[in-house]
Amino acid sequence: MLSRSLQQLATRAMRLADVEGTTARVRHPLADVYEHVNEGIAAFHREVVAAGGADLLLAQTSIEMTGASMYALPADMLAPLTLVLDGGPNDRSEFVMPFGETERPDLERESAGATQYRIAGDNVELLPAPSAGRVLR
Question: Which of 89, 98, 91, 87 is closest to 63 using CA atoms?
Fold first, then answer.
């Protein structure tokens, strides 16, 4: 993946718009160009999310399980990419798959099997609730 700095993006945008040079900088201050580039990035992000590509994660995180079923998500998390539950039997890790409301009754039974998740606002709900001491990554 090719990454570019904000300055590189702004310079390229100005070059493509043919507004380089001193006169252009007076009419189009760099702060304004940066603002437009950031607006474009935000618009692109909204389109990606709307198209179902919401599997974006800004920072890796770990949440220690306490035996509850609901945990607060970090503020910098946009949406889960992959959730893994560590510390299972024989110190195994398991991928946690999403669930829908229609699956809730089956998951609330104690013998439901693998833990699954649902995003509820700024929280993640895990059913059946994982045992204390496990870690969600």
Answer: 87
